[in-house]
Q: What sequence folds into this?
């Protein structure tokens, strides 16, 4: 079983001067690191967050050098250097899968990204609102409105309360609406999927920001711990079903 950031067939260091390289790496671990994209030809997709569920925001050519400001866990990718859930931040809102980047190490070579660096940030346009209807026809400040915002913003989907001819309504109806619309609903979380629960009077939905190796997921949400406010938490993946839109 691979560790969270482990890769198979990983790149080895230089035989000559290896010790010196190791010393430099230790000395600069808290700083940005460099890497080289290696895809064997095709451009590497750049995403707005650390996972394949985030929208594509560009590409980086094979062989290009990149500066990695920080690294974080995201969705698991199999690439040139094996299988890894490590993602490299190479610019503002720009992440690439580390499995396709030569860094000289199987482990993280740059500092861990902060919450805001991983894309977990309260950028909901109606934060502070406690009433009114949003452009997607959900009540502002509710979990459904925040989830709709994430779907529209991160996945470039034309989502609304009438998406694909269904009435999505309260969170406890989202799984039924998704199935009726032909959208996959299952017990397997992915970054960018919607976590859904029927618990409580109205249910709850949240955005999956990370899938962790210990069987947990990290979610972003509104109106859970604090009414009409943003929050994040790490919970067992069995706490939800997962709706895969786009």
A:
């Amino acid at each position: 079983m691979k560790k969270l950031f482990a890769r198979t067939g990983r790149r080895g260091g230089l035989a000559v001067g290896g010790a010196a390289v190791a010393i430099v790496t230790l000395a600069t671990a808290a700083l940005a690191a460099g890497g080289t994209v290696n895809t064997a030809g095709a451009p590497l997709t750049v995403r707005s967050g650390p996972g394949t569920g985030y929208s594509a925001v560009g590409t980086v050519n094979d062989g290009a050098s990149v500066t990695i400001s920080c690294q974080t866990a995201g969705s698991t990718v199999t690439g040139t250097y094996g299988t890894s859930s490590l993602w490299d931040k190479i610019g503002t809102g720009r992440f690439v899968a580390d499995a396709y980047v030569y860094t000289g190490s199987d482990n993280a070579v740059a500092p861990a990204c902060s919450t805001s660096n991983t894309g977990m940030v309260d950028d909901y346009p109606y934060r502070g609102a406690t009433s009114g209807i949003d452009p997607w026809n959900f009540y502002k400040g509710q979990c459904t409105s925040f989830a709709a915002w994430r779907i529209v913003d991160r996945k470039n989907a034309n989502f609304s309360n009438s998406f694909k001819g269904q009435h999505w309504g309260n969170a406890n109806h989202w799984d039924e609406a998704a199935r009726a619309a032909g959208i996959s609903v299952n017990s397997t979380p992915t970054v960018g999927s919607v976590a859904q629960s029927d618990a409580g009077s109205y249910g709850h939905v949240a955005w999956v920001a990370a899938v962790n190796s210990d069987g947990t997921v990290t979610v972003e949400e509104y109106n859970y711990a604090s009414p009409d406010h943003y929050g994040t938490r790490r919970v067992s993946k069995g706490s939800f079903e997962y709706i895969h839109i786009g």
Q: What stands out?
A: The radius of gyration is 20 Å. The chain has three helices and 14 strands. The longest strand covers residues 70-79.
